[in-house]
Automatic annotation (TrEMBL):
<keyword id="KW-0346">Stress response</keyword>
<dbReference type="InterPro" id="IPR020568">
    <property type="entry name" value="Ribosomal_Su5_D2-typ_SF"/>
</dbReference>
<keyword id="KW-0067">ATP-binding</keyword>
<dbReference type="InterPro" id="IPR020575">
    <property type="entry name" value="Hsp90_N"/>
</dbReference>
<dbReference type="Pfam" id="PF13589">
    <property type="entry name" value="HATPase_c_3"/>
</dbReference>
<feature type="region of interest" description="A; substrate-binding">
    <location>
        <begin position="1"/>
        <end position="326"/>
    </location>
</feature>
<keyword id="KW-0143">Chaperone</keyword>
<dbReference type="InterPro" id="IPR036890">
    <property type="entry name" value="HATPase_C_sf"/>
</dbReference>
<keyword id="KW-0963">Cytoplasm</keyword>
<feature type="region of interest" description="C">
    <location>
        <begin position="537"/>
        <end position="614"/>
    </location>
</feature>
<dbReference type="InterPro" id="IPR001404">
    <property type="entry name" value="Hsp90_fam"/>
</dbReference>
<comment type="function">
    <text>Molecular chaperone. Has ATPase activity.</text>
</comment>
<protein>
    <recommendedName>
        <fullName>Chaperone protein HtpG</fullName>
    </recommendedName>
</protein>
<dbReference type="InterPro" id="IPR037196">
    <property type="entry name" value="HSP90_C"/>
</dbReference>
<comment type="subunit">
    <text>Homodimer.</text>
</comment>
<dbReference type="Pfam" id="PF00183">
    <property type="entry name" value="HSP90"/>
</dbReference>
<dbReference type="InterPro" id="IPR019805">
    <property type="entry name" value="Heat_shock_protein_90_CS"/>
</dbReference>
Length: 614
């Protein structure tokens, strides 16, 4: 028999190319099984296609991809009942790295009817060589449909391969991997079962794993997203949603469609009905699964932007190559077009549901903070995202939109006012709102982690500027207080100047204000710099230099201010410090020196308790 063995050199620079395939083209070692199962399924689809014109090519009724591990022999065998390969096919498809048998075959299908064409998964010739990631020797025995001869191809991936007559009772192919010492996991049936369910659960060809001498089914074989919506019940959608992400709730929205034309793909996406157990703010990437012709490729293709990462589901396309890595997928133009189309469809669904109500507030409470990130991150989509936003307000109960706010604006009002702080409840009683409430001006109350960042990026809505109420220099004079104008107060100029001198190192300015009613003081930010919430974030991040200094605004009508304005000049520095600390506490900050502040308050209370009553 040895005289019939033919030794051949690979038809390419094998050392460099094999190293590329094994170490660079694929990110995960386990990919080899996906590639070999894809090739086997492809071969069976090719045989099924040829059977349309030749009865002798018909698949056996029990045809499947069979995966058989053998721990003692340290081999893993992948068998199929596909079209098979003759001697010349083995030499041309496996003997020349990067030659694609599938691609060549696909060219013959151009004249065939669309409904007769098999859904070819892989590009045989490159993916096959991923076997050398886990095997130090690979043998392929194949018999082509219509031939009585079988041939065996063998190689250790070192620059050459052999061809010799082989034995196979029926048409098809057996690939035998001689597993490396560090790849024992791929001889375990449970591990192989996990990989098939991960990578090939939905291909139409049955896949079986041999366990204790018996063939056990390893894949579902039904891709729900490939079916028509009319064929699927709500229960089936929910069951798939549960299996997809280990969810236990019902999806809030289900999006199922097929895109046809220049770009073809099927998509089945879900918006969850509740927050996931793991905080979604901690995960920045979309995990929508990418499939190519039903074969799972990756859940890291970032098919949706990070601000839609709460969406779960599957996108399956015919227009991407199977045998490329996640990294290479990112640069393919087809994937960029799919991303754009899928993102647009999700936004349309959210927009429609927001207009119709449909429990949109429940969605917003679950995922609103994440959606707001899109205003900050996605310049092209800002105008589409803005109408989807919802807010608490100083004027109405429940949630309100920017459009609703604009519809309630007072005559002459040119800005949408908002206030940002850490605590949603504290916002309602903030001193920053007093002047606006007195004039019947509505303020949106923002308390999510991203609220300090996105308003400046949006800038305006329906030509109305977004304006933080903590920005200094706000002119409310055109809006008279609803209870009438207060009497002017004079005689505080010297006190204000003294406070400004005492706090020169800590504030940018000290001035009287007409936007306070019940509070003595309030802080505001410079008109051109970040607002108070952003200044607080900068200080917490150790970047106080970029925060700037606040302005201390004083209510000239408040009893405390009138009392302090007549204290001896020597006591002004201490009084000024107390006023600054009071303003900081009102805005949710700590006093500059909490211990010293506590002592001063205690002393003041003790002195007040000793004052004789009249």
């Amino acid at each position: 028999m040895s005289e019939t063995i033919e030794r051949h050199e690979f038809g390419a620079e094998v050392g460099r190319l094999l190293d590329l395939v094994v170490h660079a083209l694929y990110s995960d070692r386990e990919i080899f099984l996906r590639e070999l199962v894809a090739n086997a399924a492809d071969a069976m689809d090719r045989r099924r296609f040829e059977a349309l014109t030749s009865e002798s090519s018909a698949l056996p009724p029990d045809a499947k991809v069979r995966i058989a591990p053998d721990k003692e022999a340290r081999t893993l065998t992948i068998s199929d009942a596909g079209i098979g390969m003759a001697k010349d096919d083995l030499a041309s498809s496996l003997g020349t790295i990067a030659r694609s048998g599938t691609r060549a075959f696909s060219q013959t299908l151009e004249s065939a009817k669309a409904e007769d064409r098999p859904s070819l998964i892989g590009q045989f010739g490159v993916g096959f060589y991923s076997a050398f990631m886990v095997a130090d020797r690979v043998t392929v025995t194949s018999r082509k449909v219509g031939s009585d001869e079988a041939w065996t191809w063998a190689s250790e991936g070192q620059g050459s391969y052999t061809l010799e007559p082989g034995t196979r009772a029926e048409p098809g192919t057996d690939i035998v991997l001689h597993i490396k010492e560090d790849a024992d996991e791929y001889l375990e049936p449970y591990r192989l079962d996990h990989l098939v369910r991960k990578w090939a659960d939905f291909i139409t060809v049955p896949v079986a794993i041999v366990r204790d001498g018996k063939d056990e089914a390893a894949n579902q074989g039904t891709a729900l997203w490939r079916k028509s919506k009319s064929e699927i019940t709500e229960e089936q959608y929910t069951e798939f949603y549960h299996a997809l992400g280990m969810n236990f709730d019902k999806p809030w929205a289900t999006l199922h469609w097929r895109a046809e034309g220049q770009l073809e793909f099927s998509a089945l996406l879900f918006v969850p009905g509740s927050k996931p157990f793991q905080p979604i703010e901690n995960e920045r990437q979309s995990k929508v699964r990418l499939h190519v012709r039903r074969m799972f490729i990756t859940d890291e293709a970032e098919l949706l932007p990070s601000w839609l990462r709460f969406v779960q589901g599957v996108v399956d396309t015919e227009d991407l190559p199977l045998n490329v890595s996640r990294e290479m997928l990112q640069s393919t133009p087809a994937l960029a077009r799919i991303r754009k189309a899928v993102t647009g469809r999700v936004i349309t669904e959210l927009s429609n549901r927001a207009k119709r109500g449909e429990d949109y507030e429940a969605f917003w409470e679950n995922f609103g903070p994440v959606l707001k990130e899109g205003i900050y991150e996605d310049f092209e989509r800002r105008s589409e995202i803005a109408p989807l936003l919802r807010f608490r307000s100083s004027a109405v109960e429940g949630w309100t939109s920017l459009a609703d706010y604009v519809s309630r604006m007072k005559d002459g009002q040119e800005a949408i006012y908002y206030l940002v702080a850490d605590d949603a409840e504290a916002l309602k009683s903030s001193a920053q709102l007093e002047g606006f409430r007195a004039r019947g001006l509505e303020v949106l109350l923002l308390s999510d982690h991203v609220d300090a960042f996105w308003p400046d990026q949006l800038g305006a809505f329906e030509e109305k500027k977004l304006q933080s109420v903590t920005k200094g220099g706000l002119d409310l004079s055109k809006f008279a207080p609803e209870g009438g104008e207060a009497d002017p107060v004079e005689g505080l100029d010297a006190f204000v100047a003294a406070v400004k001198t005492a706090l020169a190192d800590e504030v940018a300015d000290v001035r009287v204000t007409d936007r306070l009613v019940d509070s003595a003081v309030v802080l505001s930010a410079g008109g051109a710099g970040p607002d108070l919430q952003m200044q607080r974030l900068l200080r917490r991040a150790g970047r106080a230099g970029g925060a700037g200094k606040p302005t201390l605004e004083i209510n000239p009508r408040h009893a405390l201010i009138r009392t302090l304005s007549v204290v001896p000049e020597s006591q002004v520095p201490e009084s000024a410090g107390m006023l600054l600390d009071l303003a900081r506490i009102q805005d949710g900050d700590s006093p500059r020196d909490p211990a010293a502040f506590a002592r001063k308050v205690a002393a003041a209370l003790a002195q007040a308790s000793q004052t004789p009553k009249e």
